[in-house]
């Protein structure tokens, strides 16, 4: 029997964690598990949803948590906030830390990936004469955040190409190019783990190892730092932050993790807590580095508090199950698209170099035309906001092999 969250509000932060875990526990051992999971979502059955990388549909436990928190706030907003905010925020930190293999005090809470990028790149200690190394393939918000940092500090930003052709890229090419690009003045590497422009997943752990090797020959005050935008890996890959050996990890939780819209996290490696300064004053007390780095102000509290349910929902399914399911669906999609003579596939076939995003083009049609014509066929895809732009479909655990077949069939029927 599930506990009533109203009763639960009167207990400790430990009790909060126990209730959330109870609400989000799932039985994933018998029957058609993925069909049962799909029933947790209110997605319209009139469409095939292959664009949920943009913004998640909330699963049942997350919807219920948001609504119950909202009701309590509407009944007595000042009292409920005063009595529960700090313990509920710590519950989110505990859930995120458990998922990421971290400690709760290492987790800061944000509203989005972009906010996390801004907090980290604005706050990290970089001086004139230092260099920030990033790539030509990185996300707009990363490139803008490091550009702003350069304007404020006089530090240099250098962009490099990690590969020549995404269709023939290999891990060794990426790692070799990055290793060659690091200079004595390079103080920070700013990277995106999974590129939403092409679907390429870079070898983040290998890059972390390179940073470790570089630092073995540097004095502590010149230690090279690594920051990773992991939004399209969170809720897709089976990892802990320790696997990456990075200094900062930033991600929104309202995409693949199915978290409440307008939520995100920043993880800070304890070795680098002293290397960053908060950007926005916090309202969070007694919660370590993560509290200090969490922007203050009044947020959509019911969404932020319910993020704990999203982390535990994924934990209840199992990170390895999630990864394997997404890999299988994306491999199926890529195989089908690659066989079509009028389609050009850009995302690597190798699951070590791809995650949940599949980018492609159709001969004679612009990406916008592809997306529009797929929508006419009741298939929801998206267009990458980059130059050059591509069409993309992103099968996730809300999808089935039949959904992928529908997407393939719709693309197969696209002609100029």
Secondary-structure element pattern, one letter each: HHHEHHEHEHEHEHEHEEHHHEEHEEEH
Q: How are the strands of the biggest sheet laid out side by side?
A: 2-8-7-6-5-3-4
Please tally the β strands and state the result. Answer: 13
CATH homologous superfamily (4th level) name of the largest domain: Type I PLP-dependent aspartate aminotransferase-like (Major domain)
**Helical stretch count?**
15
Largest sheet: 7 strands, mixed
Task: Assign a percent range to the helix content.
Answer: 40-55%
Average pLDDT metric: 93
Top CATH class of the largest domain: Alpha Beta
Question: What form results from the Cα inertia axes?
Answer: globular
Fold-level CATH name of the largest domain: Aspartate Aminotransferase, domain 2
- Secondary structure class reads alpha/beta
Distance between the termini: 57 Å
CATH architecture of the largest domain: 3-Layer(aba) Sandwich
Count of discrete structural domains: 2
Give Rg in angstroms: 22 Å
User: What percent of residues are in strands?
Assistant: 5-15%
Low-confidence stretches: 1-18
Walk me through the structure.
The chain has 416 residues and is of the alpha/beta class. The chain folds into two domains: 104-314, Aspartate Aminotransferase, domain 2 (3-Layer(aba) Sandwich); 319-412, Aspartate Aminotransferase, domain 1 (Alpha-Beta Complex), CATH 3.90.1150. The protein has 15 helices and 13 strands. It has helices at residues 5-8, 13-24, 33-38, 60-75, 77-100, 113-123, 140-153, 171-181, 204-215, 241-244, 288-293, 301-317, 319-338, 367-376, 401-412; strands spanning 48-49, 107-110, 131-135, 156-160, 186-192, 225-229, 248-252, 264-268, 343-345, 358-362, 379-380, 382-383, 391-393. Strands 2-8-7-6-5-3-4 form a seven-stranded mixed beta sheet, sandwiched between helices. Helix 4 packs antiparallel against helix 12 (301-317). Residues 1-18 have low confidence and may be disordered.
């Amino acid at each position: 029997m599930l506990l009533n969250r109203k009763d639960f509000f009167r207990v400790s932060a430990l009790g909060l964690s126990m209730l959330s875990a109870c609400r989000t526990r799932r039985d994933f051992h018998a029957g058609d598990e993925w069909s049962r999971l799909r029933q947790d979502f209110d997605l319209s059955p009139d469409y095939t949803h292959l664009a949920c990388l943009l913004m998640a549909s909330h699963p049942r436990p997350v919807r219920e948590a948001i609504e119950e928190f909202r009701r309590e706030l509407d009944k007595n907003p000042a009292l409920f906030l005063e009595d529960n905010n700090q313990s509920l925020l710590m519950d989110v930190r505990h859930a995120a830390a458990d998922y990421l293999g971290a400690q709760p005090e290492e987790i800061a809470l944000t509203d989005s990936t972009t906010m996390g990028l801004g907090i980290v790149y604005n706050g990290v200690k970089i001086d004139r004469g230092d260099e920030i190394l990033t790539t030509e393939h990185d996300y707009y918000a990363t490139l803008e955040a490091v550009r702003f940092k350069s304007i404020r500090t006089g530090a240099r930003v250098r962009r490099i190409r990690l590969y020549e052709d995404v269709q023939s890229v290999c891990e060794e090419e990426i790692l070799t190019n990055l290793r060659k690009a690091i200079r004595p003045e390079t103080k920070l590497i700013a990277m995106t783990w999974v590129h939403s422009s092409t679907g390429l997943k870079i070898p983040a752990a290998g890059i972390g190892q390179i940073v470790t090797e570089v630092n073995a020959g540097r004095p502590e005050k010149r230690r090279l730092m690594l920051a990773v935008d992991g939004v399209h890996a969170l809720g897709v890959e089976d990892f802990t932050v320790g696997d990456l050996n990075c200094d900062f990890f930033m991600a929104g939780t309202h995409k693949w993790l199915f978290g409440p819209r307008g939520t995100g996290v920043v993880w800070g490696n304890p070795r680098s807590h002293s290397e960053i300064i908060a950007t926005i004053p916090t309202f969070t007390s007694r919660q370590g580095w993560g509290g200090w780095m969490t922007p203050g102000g009044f947020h959509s509290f019911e969404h932020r508090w319910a993020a704990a349910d999203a982390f535990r929902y994924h934990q209840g399914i199992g990170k390895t199950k999630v990864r394997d399911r997404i890999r299988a669906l994306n491999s199926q999609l890529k195989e089908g698209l690659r066989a079509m003579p009028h389609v050009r596939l850009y995302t690597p076939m190798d699951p070590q170099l791809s995650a949940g995003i599949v980018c492609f083009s159709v001969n004679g049609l612009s990406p916008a035309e592809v997306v529009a014509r797929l929508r006419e066929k009741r298939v929801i895809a998206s267009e990458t906001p980059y130059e050059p732009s591509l069409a993309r479909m992103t099968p996730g655990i809300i999808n089935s092999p039949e959904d992928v077949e529908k997407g393939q069939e719709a693309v197969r029927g696209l002609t100029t």
